[in-house]
Amino acid sequence: MKEINKKKSKAKTSKRKKKKSRKGKGWKRFIIFMFLCLGVISLVLFCSRKMIQDTIVRWTMARETPFVPNKYSFDDALFIGNVMNNHSEGPGIMQLEGGAVLAGTWKDGKKEGVFRESDAQHKTTFTLWENDVCIGKAKTLKSIRRDKNLYDKAKFGIDVSKYQPEYWGAMAICVNGSGTLSADLNVEQWVPVDFVIMKASEGITIIDRQYQYHSEMADILDIPQGAYHVISTKTDVYDQVQLYVSQIQEVNLAFPPILDIEGSTKEISPEQFKKYEPIYIDWLEQVEKFTGHRPMVYCCYDFYMSYGKNSKLKQYDFWIASYGSNVFPSSCRLRQISDHGRIAGWNADVDIDVLMYK
Questions:
Q1: Burial class (CB in 10 A: 0-12, 13-18, 19+), 99
Q2: pTM of the model
Q3: pLDDT tier at 62, thresholds 50, 70, 90
């Protein structure tokens, strides 16, 4: 009897051990399975990172709608700008019957400050107004002094994006008596804006929300315009080209297509530039093929000195950002001389550019 009980107890203990061992193996299998799942998921995410990134960007940018300006009818005129208490308020453009245009700043419906006036024959003059009364022609200069540089009788312009104020006014650069840029909106002399370069697109999904509006205002004021694309080194070049070309194809551009390369030598190392250079060249070549116009390159001065002039980019014209008194190469068609300029009616900084040659 005792022997039978011993056998039973041994059998029970062996079963318990087997159950314990099975339980241990089950947990091990579960942990291994989980690690395998995590590995597969990580691999899928790694391989799909570009698609996921593009999807996130598209979802984010889908929420940014194009800017639609306010347009109001007053008697025989159309006003593009803000209105308060049924009166024009702030910077705006007034299109009159017959094709004449008034652009400037209104206060409680009354013209105040410098105005750009264009007649039906597109002849432009600048006038001064006080309390809705024209007091004469505005003093306009044909030169801007920046540090030791005097840009005499050059063409001056601005480059804009969605970060600039929404409504256009007289489009005149504020300068003081010596011709240097001024932050004072009440100065007595101005330099007319001769051209405007607008951000059109970035990467494969970003369309500047004010691009179409900026282009429309430039057409109304007969201001020559250009458009640039901010390159992304992480997304497909062909898709970037298609996005940019789709934005500029119905716009009357006075400047060639522009590739915007953001970053100085502090942000882009020589090793990175070697990796990015084929991307830049691919974009430039594809855009030239689609548009029939040879593009130009925007970059900062140290990028040009370190990379631009010593690479395949040197075959293109340049738009160089430099706020000092640097010597510029003959390939520099445009120079950005300041990022702290002011435009009449705009209480915000704007980039000022000089057309070095036609």
A1: exposed
A2: 0.82
A3: very low
